[in-house]
Structure formats: structure tokens, C-alpha cells
């Protein structure tokens, strides 16, 4: 009892989250999450489920019937796709260009797949011909690829990869967690078989829901592995001929029965997360998908102009930079972690550190979702300039960062 009295009310400090995600959640989404609970078979709730499926078909630019939410953070979506498609010994090709390529490898290996990789230096991406050559050489069942990898701030061009995979009878799975609605991803036009995402980046939502979509090629594989848990099996049930999917929670065949017309019981849907996912999609679609891409591109241009005007050097191949996150080299002699903690403690602003070979070398600064706006970018640049100055860095002409970033918005009429 004593302990309970000593724990304060939940009162998170106000922050401006300008890292690689999560970012500030749109207040409309927070409001949606506070709506009353409903049972998952309440007709009002199943109507919300169906609406959510339609909304995410638009987000993914697909006609795929199977477009729904997996409960869990973004990697729950990756794990669902992989554990349901891959059987032990299946070959998977992962073209890796950052930390999240390693995550795809890790999850595929845990599914018992034989994983082969091709790698490119962090800060670069693949030419489609490199992926094509590896597909022809390795003949995998699946290519698994990130669209954007926040660890390197790079985005892999995907337009031709689906055709390469289809021509070689290979499935293409894309993790677009970091890029969805910040960059174009026409799933059907680009012949992508399966995609998974999260809410916590350009969709301006909280982590905890993983929207997915997949086509008939995936459905066929999964249906052969169909297994319904004892206790809810219908009388006419016959199990699929393939191996049972080794996860109950992430079993796509059972999730399809849950989200489809059958409405067969499975988990208790995370209703508040569904409300959040539904509102995230509504916000973007009310504005327009194209407008969302343009808003993120403009934010990127403004952020890049501001940082460069401060004399800072940017990381990676800027032609393939994700619009929503920018890598900045920590200038020689400047204490990277001290700058981050001063930004947090003096200004309430979070920017990102980095992993692996980039650890201690770059900061990652995001401008996405709710913070993909002039005010957040200018505030972040002004604070960064002050903190850099306090740590002995010569910023060049004072105020240049904010001025150049503002100029980009002014030119766009804002
Ligand atoms: C490209 C990418 N994939 C997957 C993930 C993992 O997402 P989560 O932490 O929500 O499981 C992230 C998180 O930053 C990501 O950027």
C-alpha cells in the first residue's frame, strides 16, 4: 500500500519527438483511443473492423481482400507474414541495407528458413539489377525487403522489384513500417505480394498495431497450412495438407477467419488500437495520399536546407534518402550524446542516436506524421543551433539554419 501511495500520477513530460520514430501522436488519434470499449463481435465493432480494412486498402493502394490489423508493434506484422508463409528449409533472400534488414534475417531464421543475403554499404541502396542477379542465382521462395530503413535513412527503390520477383516465381514481402504514407507504395501496381507496417512513423499513431496486406498468392500458401484450434472448430473442419503454422497468435489462416465473413473467434481484438489505426488512416486519406507524400518531401527539403546551412554534413546517398528522416554527421569534437541530452532537458526535443557502424557517428533527425510541419522543423533547428553553439561548434552565420528551412516553406507558399 505504501508503494502505491508513493507512485505519482502518470504525467509524461511534454516532448517534441524529432527522432526516427515514434513521433508525437496526432491528438485526433489520442481522442479516438479514449472511446468506449466494445466486444469484438458487437455489430458496431465488426463494422469498424470492416471500415478499417477498407481504409488500409486505400493506404496500401490495393484491392487485396486480405488487408487487416495484427495486434502488436510493427515486427508483429513481419513475424505474422513470415511464420505463416515460410516452412522450415524454405529459402529467403534478404537484400540488406541497414539494421532492419538484420531484423528480417533474424525473424526468417527463427521460422526455420534458409536465409541468404546480399549487402550494400550503410548509406547506399541496391540497383534493381543486383537484386535480380541474386534472385536468379539463389531461386528463393521469398524476397524480404525494407522499403525504408530508419537506421541508415535510406529508401530502396521498389518499383521494379515486384516484376523481377514475379518473372522468377518468387514472392515479394516488403516491410514499409518506416516509409508508409511518407513515400509512394502502390502495392498492386508494383506487384508486391505482402506488406506489413506500423503506425508510429508517418501515420502519426502510437506503436502497437501492425496493418498488413497480402494477395491471392500468399492466401494460397497459407490456406494449405490451415489449422483451427480445438474448441472452436466447426463440424465440417478439415485441416490443410501443409505443416501447421507454429505460432497461434500470428497464424494468418486463423486471422483470416477472424477478420473475414466467418468471424471465427481468435484473440480479443485490441479495440483501442483499432480505433487508433482507423483514425490514423482517416487523417491521411482526408488530406490525400499524394498530399501526404508531398508534405513529407517538403519537410525533408526544408530540414536538409536548414542543416546544410548550419554547415553540417549529411549522411548517405541523398538521392535515396527517406523524406522523413535525415542522418547528420556529429561534427568533429562535438559530444554527440551531450547534445542530445541538452536538447531533451533544455528544450524537450528528442532526436535519434544510431546503431551498428554508425553508432556515435551520426544523429538521426525525423520530421514525420504529426511533426511533419514547418513549426516542428524550425523549432528543432533553432534548438540544435543553440546547443551546438554551447558545445563549441561554429555554426557559420547565426540563424542560417532556420532562415534556409523557412525559405523552402515560403517558396511552397507556406
Ligand atoms: C523499417 C522498420 N521495420 C521494423 C521496425 C520495428 O518496429 P517495432 O519496433 O514497432 O516492432 C522498425 C522500427 O523502427 C522499422 O523502422
Which CATH architecture of the largest domain?
3-Layer(aba) Sandwich
Strand-and-helix sequence, N→C?
HEHHEHEHEHEEEHEEEHHHHEHEEHH
Largest sheet: 7 strands, mixed
User: Rough shape?
Assistant: globular
Biggest sheet strand line-up: 2-10-9-8-5-3-4
Helix/strand class = alpha/beta
CATH class of the largest domain: Alpha Beta
Number of domains: 2
Strand content of the residues, in percent?
Answer: 5-15%
Number of DSSP strands?
A: 13
CATH superfamily of the largest domain: Type I PLP-dependent aspartate aminotransferase-like (Major domain)
Structure description:
The chain folds into two domains: about 25-285, Aspartate Aminotransferase, domain 2 (3-Layer(aba) Sandwich), CATH 3.40.640; about 290-410, Aspartate Aminotransferase, domain 1. Helices cover about 40% and strands about 15% of the residues. Helix 5 (about 100-110) links the parallel strand 3 and strand 4. It has about 425 residues and is of the alpha/beta class. It has helices at about 1-5, 25-35, 45-60, 75-85, 100-110, 130-140, 160-165, 215-225, 250-260, 270-285, 290-310, 335-345, 375-390, 400-410; strands at about 15, 65-70, 90-95, 115-120, 140-145, 150, 155, 170-175, 195, 210-215, 325-330, 350, 360-365. It has 14 helices and 13 strands. The strands form four sheets. Strands 2-10-9-8-5-3-4 form a seven-stranded mixed β-sheet, sandwiched between helices. The structure holds pyridoxal-5'-phosphate (PLP).
Amino acid at each position: 500500500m505504501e508503494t502505491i501511495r508513493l507512485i505519482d500520477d502518470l504525467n509524461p513530460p511534454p516532448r517534441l519527438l524529432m527522432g526516427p520514430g515514434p513521433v508525437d501522436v496526432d491528438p485526433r488519434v489520442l481522442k479516438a483511443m479514449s472511446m468506449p470499449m466494445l466486444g469484438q463481435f458487437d455489430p458496431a465493432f465488426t463494422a469498424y473492423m470492416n471500415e478499417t480494412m477498407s481504409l488500409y486498402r486505400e493506404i496500401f493502394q490495393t484491392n487485396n481482400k486480405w488487408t487487416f490489423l495484427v495486434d502488436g508493434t510493427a515486427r508483429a506484422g513481419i513475424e505474422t507474414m513470415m511464420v505463416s508463409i515460410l516452412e522450415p528449409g524454405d529459402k529467403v533472400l534478404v537484400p540488406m541495407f541497414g539494421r532492419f534488414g538484420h531484423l528480417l534475417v533474424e525473424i526468417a531464421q527463427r521460422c526455420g528458413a534458409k536465409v541468404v543475403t546480399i549487402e550494400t554499404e550503410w548509406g547506399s541502396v541496391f540497383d534493381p539489377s543486383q537484386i535480380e542477379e541474386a534472385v536468379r542465382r539463389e531461386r528463393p521462395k521469398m524476397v524480404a525487403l525494407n522499403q525504408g530503413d530508419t537506421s541508415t535513412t535510406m529508401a530502396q527503390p521498389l518499383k521494379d522489384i515486384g516484376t523481377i520477383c514475379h518473372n522468377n516465381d518468387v514472392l515479394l514481402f516488403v516491410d514499409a513500417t518506416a516509409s508508409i504514407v511518407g513515400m509512394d507504395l502502390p502495392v498492386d501496381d508494383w506487384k508486391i505480394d505482402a506488406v506489413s507496417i506500423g503506425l508510429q512513423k508517418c501515420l502519426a499513431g502510437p506503436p502497437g498495431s501492425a496493418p498488413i496486406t497480402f494477395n491471392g498468392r500468399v492466401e494460397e500458401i497459407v490456406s494449405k497450412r490451415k489449422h483451427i484450434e480445438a474448441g472452436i472448430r466447426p463440424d465440417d473442419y478439415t485441416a490443410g495438407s501443409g505443416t501447421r503454422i507454429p505460432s497461434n497468435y500470428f497464424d494468418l489462416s486463423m486471422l483470416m477467419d477472424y477478420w473475414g465473413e466467418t468471424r471465427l473467434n481468435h484473440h480479443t481484438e485490441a479495440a483501442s488500437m483499432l480505433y487508433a489505426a482507423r483514425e490514423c488512416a482517416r487523417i491521411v486519406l482526408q488530406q490525400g495520399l499524394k498530399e501526404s507524400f508531398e508534405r513529407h518531401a517538403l519537410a525533408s527539403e526544408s530540414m536538409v536546407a536548414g542543416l546544410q546551412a548550419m554547415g553540417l554534413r549529411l549522411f548517405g546517398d541523398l538521392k535515396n534518402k527517406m523524406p522523413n528522416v535525415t542522418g547528420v554527421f556529429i561534427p568533429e569534437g562535438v559530444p554527440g550524446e551531450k547534445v542530445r541530452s541538452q536538447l531533451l532537458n533544455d528544450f524537450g526535443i528528442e532526436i535519434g542516436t544510431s546503431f551498428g557502424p554508425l553508432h556515435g557517428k551520426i544523429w538521426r533527425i525525423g520530421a514525420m506524421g504529426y511533426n511533419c510541419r514547418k513549426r516542428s522543423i524550425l523549432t528543432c533547428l533553432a534548438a540544435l543551433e543553440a546547443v551546438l553553439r554551447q558545445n563549441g561548434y561554429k555554426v557559420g552565420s547565426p540563424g542560417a539554419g532556420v532562415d534556409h528551412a523557412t525559405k523552402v516553406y515560403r517558396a511552397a507558399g507556406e
